Amino acid sequence: MEFQIWAEKYRPAKLSDVINQTHAMERIKAFVKDKNIPHMLFAGPAGTGKTTTALAIAREVYGETWRQNVLELNASDERGIDVIRGKVKDFARMKSFGELPWKIIILDEADALTQEAQQALRRTMENYTNVTRFILLCNWSSKIIEPIQSRCAVFRFRILEDNDIKKYIQRIADGEKLKVDPKAADAVVYLSEGDLRKVANILQSSASIKEKITEDVVYDIASKAKPTDVKDMLEMTLKGKFMDARKKLQELLLRQGLSGSDIITEIHRQIYSLDGMPEDRKIQLIEKCGEYEFRLSEGGNELIQLESLLAQFLTLSKK
């Protein structure tokens, strides 16, 4: 059987099945119902359903002929002005198939387009509005020039709620007949940070190792630090048990093979959940996290820098 990526396999085909059912989705459904969509700009974090929504629009508007009426491009791969003047402009000129007089061009990662390409796209959007609709997808709408934004209906996608992600996990578990432990599902939600592609990839990788997916399997596959391990290490440090905290750090780095930046990221998360610590002290700890994360990015030794970070935490706790 041919290997299939679950993120694509479980992509909804209809707008009603898209998990990110925000207020913006109601406006999109109204446009689709009238079969008269404007130029659109979908902005938001990765894995929140922007591409899925664009493809679902195409399927519902065109039906069986949607592939002939849609051009999908990834602007991060084809980001120059020649692509806009070539592929995009040529497709925009073509006559549509079926009843509707216009086609759809989906430009994924449009914020990767160069300034020159965006200026050329602006003119193309103006000249072929009667026969072509553009759906631009991006993570950062601020990187799209204002003239393009003013020509589009802007829809902002937010990260998904935990309950929505759990529904998606259940959909995959039912489809693949997986046994997912409740704690494993919570771990997937925690690690995914609202990105459904991460959810599908973690589940698929975990299922390839063990039939029953547990919390330990999820963290091993994701190569991320367990929140409980990092919190224990922090509490040991703040209680003055530096050598115990150091042993825990070495276990995370050397035995579990985690990266220093991932451990600092988890430390940063856990600082907010420390009980009984004044707010001003938490601010000082977060400032130290930023300093040592920068040191690692500049090539500092992970073990030395993280031990130094724990030493700084211990010093601050005594003050």
Describe this structure in words.
The chain is an alpha/beta fold and 319 residues long. The protein has three domains: 6-156, Rossmann fold (3-Layer(aba) Sandwich); 162-222, Helicase, Ruva Protein, domain 3 (Orthogonal Bundle); 227-318, Zinc Finger, Delta Prime, domain 3. Helices cover 56% and strands 9% of the residues. The protein has 15 helices and seven strands. Strands 2-3-4-1-5 form a five-stranded parallel sheet. A two-stranded parallel ribbon has the order 6-7. α12 packs antiparallel against α15 (302-318). The longest helix is centred in the C-terminal third of the chain and has 19 residues, at 279-297. 34% of the residues are buried.
Structural class of the secondary structure composition?
alpha/beta
Please write the CATH class name of the largest domain: Alpha Beta
Mean pLDDT: 86
Tell me the overall shape.
elongated
Number of helices: 15
Distance between the termini: 62 Å
Question: How would you classify the quaternary structure?
Answer: single chain
Looking at this protein, list some descriptive labels.
319 residues; Helicase, Ruva Protein, domain 3; two-stranded parallel ribbon; alpha/beta; Rossmann fold; Zinc Finger, Delta Prime, domain 3; 15 helices; elongated
